[in-house]
Amino acid sequence: MSNKDRVYGYKIRNTETGLYLRGGADTSESRVGRVWTNRAAAIRAVNMKLKAIDKPWNEQSKIQRYREGVLSYEVVELIEGGSNPIHFYLNDLNF
Fold first, then answer.
1. The sheet that has 20-21: what strands, in order across it?
2. What is the pLDDT averaged over residues 58-66?
3. Which 3-state string (H, E, C) describes the chain?
4. CB 34 within 8 A of CB 11
5. pLDDT band for position 26 (50/70/90)?
6. What predicted TM-score, i.e. pTM, was given to this entire model?
7. Where exactly are the structural domains of the chain?
8. Residues above pLDDT 90, as percent of the chain
9. Is the predicted pLDDT of residue 83 greater than 70, yes or no?
10. Distance between CA 36 and CA 18 in Å, rounded?
């Protein structure tokens, strides 16, 4: 990413499943997911997801499961790759 690329949002992808985190109180994942406007909010959603995992009885096991869970997610930055005026796509529009 160059210095002039602007990040428009963030998504969280599970690298094992390829699905995106939906966030908020809904800790499920989907093909579309949710876009967060800032990175801190996206990271907070990962924490909420991992805390929702069934809590094992022993504390050491809980820490290990949390670490394994963190490693299965990645932050995807949404940047503008390019843009064209709409008249380039007139053949694709339905009138």
1. 29-30, 20-21, 7-14, 73-79
2. 67
3. CCCCCCEEEEEEEECCCCCEECCCCCCCEECCCCCECCHHHHHHHHHHHHHCCCCCCCHHHHHHHHHHHHCCEEEEEEECCCCCCHHHHHHHCCC
4. yes
5. low
6. 0.70
7. 7-92
8. 28
9. yes
10. 18
